[in-house]
Amino acid sequence: MALDNNDDLPFVSGEHARAVGRICTEFFLNTAVDSADFFKGELVTALVFLAIMRENVRHLDHELTQAKGETPLRSPVPDSDREPVTIYVVAKVLGLTYETARRHVKRLVDGGYCVRMERGLLVPSEVLTRPDVMRANARNLFHFNQLLNDAMRAGLIEIVKAG
To answer: Which domains does the chain have, with CATH numbers?
Structure first.
């Protein structure tokens, strides 16, 4: 669902700000620790990996629909629909120096987590379907479900059943 202007954006009242801060901090720390663990304690490498992954599909509509009626919803976006990203963009997105981003990209390329292409870097769909990456995604989904449950318990959101 597209929101037309800022008046349509959901907001949290000041009385709920403390709960939002606590819930978001918990989610961020849980996912950051899991991401760093995935890359042997290297949080910046994990962030570079996530930034490349995000930038590869950022141009796509993330509605819960299947791409061209072909790809099952739980499958990764096909490589042909991904856009490579440059190290410069990754550095800018994360607020890193180019050299720092380049060093972490080298680790990812050497580890087989991303590939260099003519126009930049790509996390191939075959990487996203590896068992270790799928387990990491499952952990992230677990943390997101915790965030939603915490938000419901704090009265920030409610589930409305259709029909």
So the answer is: 17-61+71-153 (1.10.10.10)
Give, in order, the Cα–Cα distances in Å from 9 to each of 22, 60, 131, 149: 21, 21, 37, 21
Nearest to 47 by CA among 38, 22, 138: 38
Which pTM does this prediction carry? Answer: 0.81
For residue range 104-163, list pLDDT tens digits in order: 999 999 999 999 999 999 999 999 999 999 999 999 999 999 999 999 999 888 777 776
* 17-36 pLDDT tens trace: 899 999 999 999 999 999 99
| CA–CA distance, 78 with 144 (Å, rounded to integer) | 24
Helix (H, G, I), strand (E, B) or coil at 85: strand
